[in-house]
Specification:
With 372 residues, the protein is mainly beta. It has a single domain, classed as TolB, C-terminal domain (Neuraminidase). Helices cover 4% and strands 39% of the residues. The chain has 3 helices and 29 strands. The longest helix is centred in the last third of the chain and has 5 residues. The chain is globular. The two termini are 32 Å apart. The N terminus is likely disordered.
Length: 372
């Protein structure tokens, strides 16, 4: 029996879709399969070397569990354990609110806890999924973070002991954060640079511009800074950009790690890479093709390394706010439809999102190996 908490709502059962009953679609990108049905809107996703899916639940739905694990048998279990995932006070440590999750080659799942449920200091939590034990907690206080910080996503350097984080903050103070996993030290980089701050554009889904309701009740369009981030398999280039933006940028990872570069000198090392749609998820395959979530187009797009031009890879009306792009060992790109645009904070105060929320997988142009 699946484990989850829904209050008065009946738990939607996870379904592994290996049969034609749930449908398979053949589109421009290849075979598309529905992998699972979920009871809550996900906020982030990664896959371990053993094939377990790790999901963070969107904090706007105020779920009991913050992060869950879906092993190969299809159960939905709190991750790494019930007390920690629920933020219980008797736990050795607690998870407050997680969006970004990434698993490294050794099976350590890194969870980016922005702490905005309880207004705690943001932190990076590493849990060894193989040994089932805590690997490390690294706190991210000021000046790496600001009072406005809402740390969003992360990418793990495959060659060096570093993690790179996006912080959209309040927009104009958006930035990247680099964390040294050996020393635990963190630095805030590129704050306010055009590569991380939002553009003044609308995100339109099904003809409806996305609106955010402020605490005073007024409605504004979302202006989200740095969100999507990825890195190539050699650890040479970090790719990133504002969620509310039409350009993807890149910078050499070695420049981000160079503590001798001045802030102004670092900004000169940023390059425009390719046009992209507004959206919050990207992933890169082993041939440096970049897959992007196209929020307004209800699509997964691709920027091929050979052309650096954005094109639609797969589109479907069910892709309501695609996100969580990551690779499994089966050569497929996994992602989910979070329905973020239908949640109350982004839908004029009206919650129109409805479970189940779907995970899909799509055959990629080039396979990616997960694990050592």
């Amino acid at each position: 029996m699946n484990y989850c908490t829904l209050g008065s709502v009946i738990c939607a059962v996870l379904v592994l879709c290996d049969s034609m009953a749930d449908g398979q679609i053949f589109g421009a990108g290849g075979k598309l399969e529905q992998v699972a049905k979920l009871p809550h809107s996900p906020g982030g996703m990664t896959i371990t070397p053993l094939g377990s899916i790790i999901l963070s639940w969107n904090q706007y739905q105020e779920t009991a569990e913050r992060v869950v694990k879906i092993p190969l048998n299809g159960d939905i279990l709190p991750f790494p354990n019930a007390a920690t995932s629920r933020g219980e006070k008797n736990a050795p440590f607690v998870i407050d609110a997680v969006l970004g999750v990434q698993c490294d080659r050794e099976g350590v799942v890194w969870m980016l806890d922005h702490g905005r449920r309880s207004e705690e200091v943001p932190k990076l939590i590493g849990w060894d999924s193989g040994k089932n034990e805590l690997a490390r907690i690294i706190y991210l206080p000021s000046p790496a973070t600001r009072g406005t910080s809402f740390i969003n996503d992360l990418v793990i350097d495959p060659q060096k002991p570093f993690i790179y984080i996006t912080d959209p903050a309040s927009g104009r103070d958006s930035a990247l954060i680099i964390v040294n996993l050996e020393t635990g030290l963190s630095r805030r980089l590129l704050e306010g640079h055009p590569s991380v701050i939002p553009e003044n554009i609308d995100i339109v889904v099904d003809g409806n511009p996305i609106t955010v309701i402020r605490p005073d009740g007024s409605a504004v369009k979302p202006m989200a800074g740095a969100g999507p981030i990825t890195i190539d398999r050699k650890g040479s280039w970090v790719y990133f950009g504002p969620m509310t933006g039409r350009m993807l940028y890149r910078i050499r990872a070695e420049h981000l790690r160079d503590i001798d570069l001045s802030p102004e000198d670092l900004k000169t090392r940023v390059e425009e890479y390719a046009a992209k749609p507004p959206g919050d998820g990207i992933a890169m395959d082993s041939e440096d093709n970049i897959y992007t979530a196209d929020a307004g187009g209800k699509a997964i797009g691709i920027i091929k390394a050979s052309t650096r031009k954005y094109e639609i890879y797969e589109t479907d009306d069910r892709f309501l706010w695609p996100d969580g792009l990551c690779f499994g060992n089966d050569g497929y790109l996994y992602f989910y439809a979070s329905q973020l645009n239908l949640l109350a904070p982004y839908n004029g105060g009206r919650d129109r999102a409805e479970p189940p929320y779907h995970i899909y997988k799509l055959k990629a142009l080039s396979a990616v190996t997960v694990g050592p």
